[in-house]
Every structure is written in structure tokens, then in C-alpha cells.
């Protein structure tokens, strides 16, 4: 029985389509019309042309050999070769011959970012590829390498923080002293150091070196306080990197460099005689009032007539070292000096420079000549404040009252004169013993 032949189909020309005939032409389905449900929009000729013109990213399996021979495509300024094995790993080849490794990625918000790994001549291919893999893992875990790098760059140098510190204290009386410490000691050492690179160990070693070079313990402590204050201010201003203060944890060294010199009555008389002969006509008045009031030099040089109440025998110091106003009682000899002070028209200052009619900036030259004439070498103007206290204590005035006159903020500041009070008490008991022995 014969096998039936497979069905065949006749073409319009009478030729057969089937297993023994030619293959039928391909059938192209008619694109769905946009008005029909589920139909895709037709692409315009312009879209098709733009898609054809869109540059494709050159991809390659980046290896040491490829990187060595890779270059910029002809007619372009640079070509980016994307690695096919490490996502985002890119070799940028420039027409100038330079090559750089990058990692390109999308952050958590979808923004495209680029992280520079290093130059071709600065890092090996193996190290660059390993770095790219590590950074890529960081991105996958939700990190952002570029943000961390930007944060490091945003941390300022200490010199910038020091400038901000000085700007914040420019209206304070201590500005000149702070500026000098910054300019001479702190900024030359730390000005070009980033805040996060400053640590307690390095700062402590620097302070030790300052002491070894002959800086007094009090001056070294001032440097420590100023440096720490910069970080405290920076933290309050949200300056990046200032939240970790490198001076914390550095123990404060005990200070024992206080120079205390007390004039005797005979030495004070010699000094008064020397300043009376000074070419600076105001020096005798300044020295006399310092010895009689125990005031600080700058407090007296900045004193105004409006703050002196002769009737109440009181002198108001609006702003003292402690930041608070205080009243200084005026003795009869102090009032006598004030009554002899020269008065200048439209000049509010108590003891101004006669030439400028402004407070003295310095009386150093006249003072140095006077102490030479009085045979008191090394005597400082601040020693007159100590001498005023010693005269009061040796006259039987208690330490509390002396502290009030001097304007001490704490009782501990007045304790330096306690040995003088003991001498006065010793004289009292000796006098009592002598009286008993004579009976």
C-alpha cells in the first residue's frame, strides 16, 4: 500500500510550496495599531535616528596587557574603557597619553558618581582592580566612597580654624595676647595640619618641647588652653573634624613659676623718687596710684574721670580681668594724687599720654630708666600690685579684705599672701610674749 504524499500548497504561479518545493517567504506581522488595546507606540524616524547615533561605551576585559596597550580612540579627547568583569571599573585614556583608573556607580538616590582610584603611573593595575572591587562592594552594601572622600576634603586645616577663633575674639581685651600666641607658637606648628590629623600624643609632645626650649610653665599652659579653645569653638560652629579635641586627656602641669616681689617701704621710697625725675610726667602718678590701689596697669591706663567718685572715695573699673565691674576704695594719699593730675580739654582719660591725649600703649622705656635709677633691677610693674597687697597684709588687714580690694575672683588667688599674714601674726605673738616677760 502506497504511503500518502504530504499535502502541498500551490503558489500563485503554479509552483508547489512544501517539503520538495522552495521555502515560503518570511511572514512579517503587521504592527499593532496604536488605537488598539495593548498596542505599543510606534517609534518616529527621529527616535530611530537618535538611537543609531547614540555612542556605545567601549567595553573590554581589563587586564595588565590591555591597560598597557590601551589608548584614546582616534579623533577623541578621551576614551573610557569599561571593564566587563568588574562593574563600574573604568580606564580613562586621554589623547595626551595619560591614563586614570575610576569607579563609576550610582548612589542611593540614583545619582551617577565617579570615584578616582589613581593614575596609571601611580598605582599598579592589580592594586587598582582590587580597590575597585572593594569600593564596588561598599556601594552594594549602601555605602558611598565619593561622599567619604568629600568629607575628608571638607575637613579644614587648623590655620583656617585659628583664623575663625581670632575673628571671634577680636573685640576682647586679650585679643593681642591671643593673636601673638597663635602667630608665634601655634599656627607655625599646626597651621597646615588637618584637624583630624591632630592627636593628643602629638600635642603633648609639642608642649613638652616648648617647655624644654625655655618657655615658662604658665606660657605652655596658655598654649594648651588656646589650642583646646579653638576646638571647643569649632565644635559649637559645627566645623568638620573639630568634635575630637586633641588637648583632652593631656594632664595640666602644676604651675610654680609665679614671680612675687614685694617692695619694702625704703625701696618704695627710692622708686617714687626715681619716677618723679622721669621725662614721662605721668609716670610718677601712675606708679603712685598702682602702689596705693593695687590695680592692674591696664585698668589704670584705661581709667576715665567719669568713673572716679571723689566724694565717695571710690573708683569704678567697669570691666576687670574677671569680666565683672568692681569698685576700688581710694585712700587719702590716692585722692591727693588724683587731685594733682593734669586735666586736658575734651579728654576723658585719667592719666593719658600728654602728646596724644589717649591712653598710653606702653610706659616701658620710662619704667626701665626709673628702676635703674632706683637700683631695683628686674622689678616689674605688676610687682607694684603685689607690693600694695603686702603693705595691706603687714598692716593687719585680713586676706578676705585684701582680695576684695584687688578684685580676686577666688580666695585661692589671695592665698599667695598668706605667708605675709603669718609674719604679722608672729609679730603679734612675739609682742605678747615680750610683754609677759617684762611683767
TrEMBL record:
This is DUF4102 domain-containing protein. It comes from the Bacteria. Residues 258-430 form the Tyr recombinase domain. Keywords: DNA integration, DNA recombination, DNA-binding. One of its GO terms (biological process) is DNA recombination. Coiled coil: none annotated. The lineage of its organism: Bacteria, Pseudomonadati, Pseudomonadota, Alphaproteobacteria, Caulobacterales. Gene3D superfamilies: 1.10.150.130, Integrase, DNA-binding domain (3.30.160.390), Intergrase catalytic core (1.10.443.10). One of its GO terms (molecular function) is DNA binding. Residues 21-35 have a biased composition (Pro residues). It comes from Brevundimonas intermedia. Residues 1-45 are annotated as: Disordered.
Amino acid at each position: 500500500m502506497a504511503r500518502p504524499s504530504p499535502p502541498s500548497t500551490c503558489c500563485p504561479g503554479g509552483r508547489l510550496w512544501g517539503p520538495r518545493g522552495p521555502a515560503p517567504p518570511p511572514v512579517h506581522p503587521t504592527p499593532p495599531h496604536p488605537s488598539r488595546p495593548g498596542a505599543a507606540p510606534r517609534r518616529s524616524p527621529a527616535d530611530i535616528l537618535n538611537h543609531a547615533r547614540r555612542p556605545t561605551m567601549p567595553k573590554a576585559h581589563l587586564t595588565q596587557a590591555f591597560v598597557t596597550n590601551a589608548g584614546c580612540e582616534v579623533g577623541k579627547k578621551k576614551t573610557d574603557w569599561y571593564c566587563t568583569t568588574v562593574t563600574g571599573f573604568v580606564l580613562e585614556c586621554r589623547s595626551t597619553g595619560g591614563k586614570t583608573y575610576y569607579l563609576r556607580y550610582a548612589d542611593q538616590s540614583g545619582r551617577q558618581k565617579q570615584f578616582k582610584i589613581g593614575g596609571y603611573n601611580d598605582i599598579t593595575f592589580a592594586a587598582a582592580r582590587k580597590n575597585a572591587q572593594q569600593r564596588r562592594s561598599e556601594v552594594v552594601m549602601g555605602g558611598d566612597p565619593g561622599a567619604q572622600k568629600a568629607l575628608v576634603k571638607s575637613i579644614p586645616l587648623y590655620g583656617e580654624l585659628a583664623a575663625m577663633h581670632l575673628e571671634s575674639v577680636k573685640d576682647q581685651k586679650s585679643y593681642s595676647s591671643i593673636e601673638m600666641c597663635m602667630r608665634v607658637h601655634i599656627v607655625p606648628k599646626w597651621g597646615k595640619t588637618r584637624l583630624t590629623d591632630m592627636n593628643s600624643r602629638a600635642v603633648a609632645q609639642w608642649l613638652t618641647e616648648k617647655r624644654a626650649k625655655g618657655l615658662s610653665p604658665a606660657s605652655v599652659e596658655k598654649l594648651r588652653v588656646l589650642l583646646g579653645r579653638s576646638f571647643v569653638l569649632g565644635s559649637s560652629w559645627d566645623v568638620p573634624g573639630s568634635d575630637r579635641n586633641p588637648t583632652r586627656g593631656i594632664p595640666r602641669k602644676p604651675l610654680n613659676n609665679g614671680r612675687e616681689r614685694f617692695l619694702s617701704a625704703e625701696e618704695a621710697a627710692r622708686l617714687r623718687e626715681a619716677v618723679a625725675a622721669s621725662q614721662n610726667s605721668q609716670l610718677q602718678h601712675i606708679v603712685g596710684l598702682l602702689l596705693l590701689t593695687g590695680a592692674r596697669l591696664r585698668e589704670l591706663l584705661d581709667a576715665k574721670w567719669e568713673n572716679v567718685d571723689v566724694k565717695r572715695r571710690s573708683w569704678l573699673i567697669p570691666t576687670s580681668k574677671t569680666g565683672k565691674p568692681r569698685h576700688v576704695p581710694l585712700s587719702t594719699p590716692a585722692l591727693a594724687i588724683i587731685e594733682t593730675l593734669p586735666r586736658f580739654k575734651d579728654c576723658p582719660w585719667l592719666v593719658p599720654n600728654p602728646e596724644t591725649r589717649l591712653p598710653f600703649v606702653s610706659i616701658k622705656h620710662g619704667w626701665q630708666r626709673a628702676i635703674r635709677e632706683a637700683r631695683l633691677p628686674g622689678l616689674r610693674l605688676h610687682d607694684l600690685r603685689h607690693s600694695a597687697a603686702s603693705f595691706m597684709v603687714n598692716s593687719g588687714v585680713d586676706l578676705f579684705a585684701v582680695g576684695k580690694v584687688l578684685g580676686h575672683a577666688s580666695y585661692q588667688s589671695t592665698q599667695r599672701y598668706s605667708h605675709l599674714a603669718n609674719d604679722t601674726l608672729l609679730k603679734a605673738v612675739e609682742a605678747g610674749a615680750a610683754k609677759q616677760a617684762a611683767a
